[in-house]
Structure to design on (256 residues):
């Protein structure tokens, strides 16, 4: 018996094993541990198990958990019922690093990414399927229309790759949008040459008013100071990660 897709959990179950295999093949081979978020009925789980990695799954839906165990998709000892967003990262593999994988629920995919970035010491790589525009946004370069908060915060710490697009009809029930598969691998240096808390604040504040120039959108943070016109007259999508680091250091110097 199939699992009933629940709208409140953002569930859309992939139908094709071939597509699931293609998604699984996007997982970088950088770590023996892997956590799959939201396995549903286990179509991606089965492909990941073929990779002989140390796999655990976390699923908030009790009906999905029952299905996975009743159909012997995965060993009960590797199956966690709970909310990924609420569980400390060190609990999943006893403090060891682990990759993150999934056909991520679209309604919480950005929150998943923010948690991964904030806990990047545990996550050397991630791969999976997102709403198409979110996957594109994560991988977009500076200067593009899609470039935004997620782009900068993820690319500050990870190298990203967009792999392929998945059409709506490959799901049950079909979502109203296309999906995109992407992956990312953590950079060698996990820290930034600036105040990271301030960096996050500068990026988020800039893009929250992305139509304004930086001198206007960051007015409260700048106080009586003004940025040089070469930066201050730009809009946030025109700045690279390195530019945002330099901007953060400039703002930090104003308060010294």
């Amino acid at each position: 018996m199939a699992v009933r897709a629940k709208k409140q959990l953002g569930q859309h179950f992939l139908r094709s094993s071939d597509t699931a295999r293609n998604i699984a093949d996007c997982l970088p081979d950088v770590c023996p541990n892997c956590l799959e978020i939201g396995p549903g009925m286990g179509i991606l789980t089965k492909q990941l198990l073929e990779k002989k990695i140390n796999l655990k799954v976390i699923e908030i839906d009790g009906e999905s958990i029952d299905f996975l165990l009743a159909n012997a998709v995965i060993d009960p000892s590797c199956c966690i019922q709970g909310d990924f967003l609420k569980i400390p990262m060190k609990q999943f593999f006893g403090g060891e690093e682990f990759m993150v994988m999934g056909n991520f629920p679209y309604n919480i995919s950005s929150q998943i990414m923010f948690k991964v970035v904030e806990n990047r010491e545990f996550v050397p790589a991630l791969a999976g399927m997102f709403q198409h525009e979110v996957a594109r946004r994560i991988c977009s370069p500076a200067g593009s229309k899609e470039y935004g908060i997620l782009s900068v915060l993820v690319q500050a710490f990870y190298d990203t790759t967009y792999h392929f697009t998945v059409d709506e009809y490959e799901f049950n029930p079909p979502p109203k949008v296309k999906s995109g598969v992407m992956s990312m691998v953590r950079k060698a240096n996990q820290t930034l040459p600036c105040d990271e808390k301030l960096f996050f604040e500068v990026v988020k504040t800039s893009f929250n008013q992305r139509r304004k120039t930086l001198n206007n959108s960051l007015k409260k943070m700048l106080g009586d100071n003004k940025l040089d016109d070469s930066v201050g007259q730009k809009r946030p999508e025109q700045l690279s990660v390195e530019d945002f680091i330099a901007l953060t250091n400039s703002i930090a110097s104003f308060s010294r």
